[in-house]
Amino acid sequence: MIGTVEVGLIYGVMALGVYLTFRVLNFPDLTVDGSFTTGAATAAMGILAGWNPLLATLAGFGAGFLAGTVTGLLHTKGKIDGLLAGILTMIALWSVNLRIMDGANIPLLRSDTVFTPLEDADLLGEWPGVGILAVAVLLLGLVVLWFLTTDLGLSIRATGDNGPMISSFGVSTDFTKTLTLALSNGFVGMCGALIAQYRGFADISMGIGLILVGLASVIIGQAILGQRKLLLAVLAVILGALLYQLIIFAALRVGLDPNDMKAVTAILVVVALLLPRWKGASGRFGRTPTTPVAANERAAAGAGTAVDAGPDSAATGTKEA
Averaged over 271-293, what is the pLDDT? Predict the structure, then answer.
């Protein structure tokens, strides 16, 4: 249970990246499946080479940043459809990741990682360790929140809302799109680096289907907390990542086959997408339907009330008659 919460918080970093492209930029980016493994592979090789674990984690961010930049350039400068640009980068990253790792798997079992201080203090796997991870992820969420309120962040948000409009004001939408894709995949790569260190290995297949996990995290969280306010939207993303891992944990505890988890994820996304529609339908069902006849009756009743409001009104009506 505690381990699931820790993993959910770490995956909150990836969910922040998916939020930037999926919600803010309104861009279907499939680079995530490849950039997650790229970040894990880069950090693992750096740690084996003797790098400081924090530096290796930042290198994972940088590797993901470069992957996102490639997708952005393919889309903006190459005029390739966004969905296809992400797929092309994701496929290319499979070979790149194998080159980085020089194999399909890298173990980190006896290497120092960013979690080693927590392990030495017997905090990893305990609630105090969960609190430290939660604070770290929330701080990162606040950084994303601050960035989105700057002039550059507002330009990125405007690009997602109405690209032609913000372009007419002189903003380069090619730059804002490429930067957002780069930052998004940078967060995804950093999450891959952290997951590799937490689990003690990097594997070529650890990013397969991860875009669905990111989408599920964003949609579940925002279906619960909403997204009208930016602060709630960012917090909802982190909460969604945590809830997703807890739901998967509960599904496994009740005896579902681990091979069915992809289907469970897809069902979760469908339910989260339909949840706002169900809320709207239930709200309309609870309200009294407004018909022209009913509206006329209420208007007539209101008029009667106005006539009966005082003796002077009644007297005036009698004189006029």
Answer: 63
Alpha helices in 172-209 (DSSP H): 173-199
Return the number of other C-beta atoms located less than 10 Å from residue 54's C-beta: 10
| Interacting residues of 75 by C-beta distance below 8 A, sequence separation 6+ | 81, 82, 85, 177, 178, 181
CA distances from 284 to 226, 228, 290, 294 (A): 19, 21, 11, 17
Which two three-digit tokens encode residue 83? 């969905």
Geometric angle at alpha carbon 154, from 134 and 32, rounded to 5°: 55
The DSSP H or E segment spanning 106 is strand 105-107
Average pLDDT, integer, range 19-35: 89
Helix or strand run (H / E) with residue 202? strand 201-203
Percent of residues, the chain, with pLDDT higher than 90: 38
Return the higher-pLDDT residue of 307 and 158.
158
- d(C-alpha 221, C-alpha 284), whole Å: 24
Write the CA distances from 294 to 284, 291, 305, integer angstroms: 17, 5, 16
Average pLDDT of the residues in 201-220 = 86
Are the C-beta atoms of residues 232 and 225 closer than 8 Å to each other?
yes
CA distance 275 to 111: 44
By three-state DSSP, how is residue 215 classified? helix
Cβ count near 142 (within 10 Å)? 13
Per DSSP, 66 falls in state: H
Give the tokens for residue 204: 């070529």
Per-residue DSSP letters for 8-39? HHHHHHHHHHHHIIIIIS-----THHHHHHHH
Distance (Å, whole) CA 237 – CA 239: 5
Do 190 and 13 meet the contact criterion of CB atoms below 8 Å apart?
Answer: yes
Q: State the average pLDDT over residues 201-217.
A: 86
The amino acid that residue 147 corresponds to is: F
Question: For the whole model, what pTM was predicted?
Answer: 0.82
